[in-house]
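Hmm, what's this shape?
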Amino acid sequence: MVHSMTAFARVEKAGVQGTLSWELRSVNSRYLEPHLRLPESFRDLEGAVREALRQGVSRGKLECTLRFTEEHTGKPLQVDQARAAQLVAAAETIASLIKNPAALNPLEVLAWPGVLVGDATDPQALNAEALALFNQGLKELKAGREREGAELARLINDRLTSIEQDVVTLRELVPQMLATQRQKVLDRFADMKAEMDPQRLEQEMVMLAQKSDVAEELDRLSTHIIEVRRVLKSGGAAGRRLDFLMQELNREANTLGSKAFDPRSTQAAVNLKVLIEQMREQVQNIE
């Protein structure tokens, strides 16, 4: 089964130390492009998160955001008195160099990094919880990509069926169109009241048939359709392969258009190009 590159997942877990939450967003990209947004205290997770993404996802631009809301209820405030004393002493030294210095605000001292400390926590345990929660979010993201991929595959298969029908119809129409063209030539000479050598007429019709022979293009279209269905069924990272096959289908449709000698074949070539373009747009979303 193929997977889409577009999905979203959000997971959250509340614990005694606080609430962890991950948001994972995935959009189209030619390569795997992870963008991590982690609180400073969780920077040690970056390597493990990147490795999990590399193992679980092949393509896509992924934005992974971790938020942590610490639980303060019932926790006493603790002050690092030694650090606070050092900060006050440094502030007094600077104040002695200034005329009429402003009074030192105790709240500003508390706001200084390292002065107000929380109760002792186990950062390794918290990181382990955050990583486990990320793996849960990644699993949900991949499930979303799989669901959307199944829908994309269905849409592409519907268009492949339409192309198959057009190919069958065109195969049946080619002899009729050649007969119509032959009659037009005969009618034109009849209107001119001119006689044409039957052998010369047959030569002209053979040349027309050779120039308008689309059997090879129709065969290749059928072969490409079979391959697209096989790739869709095989699944995995199929986006680049499918994109190549869309180019090949489009090449054959262009050749059909250049060989068209009847309004019906021209319309069939146009229909094919429309269907192929619709598939190509869907393929851009496949991993």
In short: Strands lie at 7-14, 18-27, 32-37, 60-70, 78-79, 116-117. The domain at 148-283 is CATH 1.20.140 (Butyryl-CoA Dehydrogenase, subunit A; domain 3). The helical segments are 46-56, 81-95, 106-111, 123-191, 198-211, 215-234, 239-259, 263-283.
